Amino acid sequence: MTDILTGQEREAQLAPLIADGWAMADGRDAITKTFRFANFVQAFGWMTRCALWAEKWNHHPEWENVYNKTTVILTTHDVGGVSALDIRLARKMDALALQG
């Protein structure tokens, strides 16, 4: 089981994500980002690649897709907030988005 991130560890791990467009979600301990793609097929392909990693790591995002835009919210429900699992999946999502 993973623990909620706190203190300096939390700040250190969140800072690079915030710099890459992630933000704290309103009203809860979660991070969010909206990814935009050229079209629906690219957005859906990215979601599929992300889903494979999410399933492998047993850590699933909350997300919504409308055409070429996918909004993601990551939080670890078991601990009630942001954990290392969220940081890991956010980094993977960013990397997959760069791959096209």
Uncertain segments are: none
Radius of gyration: 13 Å
CATH topology: Gyrase A, domain 2
Reading the helices and strands in chain order gives HEEHEEH
| Total number of strands | 4
What is the CATH homology-level superfamily? Transcriptional coactivator/pterin dehydratase
Please describe the biggest sheet, giving its number of strands, its sense, and whether it closes into a barrel.
Answer: 4 strands, antiparallel
CATH class: Alpha Beta
- Strand percentage: 15-25%
Distance between the termini: 32 Å
Q: What would you say the CATH architecture is?
A: 2-Layer Sandwich
Number of helices: 3
Give the proportion of residues in helices: 40-55%
Number of domains: 1
Q: Tell me the strand order in the biggest sheet.
A: 1-2-4-3
Shape: globular
Helix-and-strand structural type:
alpha+beta
Average pLDDT, rounded to a whole number, is: 95
Report on the structure:
With 100 residues, this protein is α+β, with helices and mostly antiparallel strands. It contains three helices and four strands. It has helices at residues 7-19, 40-57, 84-99, and strands at 23-24, 31-36, 62-66, 69-74. A four-stranded antiparallel β-sheet has the order 1-2-4-3, with helices on one face. The longest helix has 18 residues, at 40-57. It is globular.
Quick summary:
This protein is an alpha+beta fold and 100 residues long. Helices cover 47% and strands 19% of the residues.
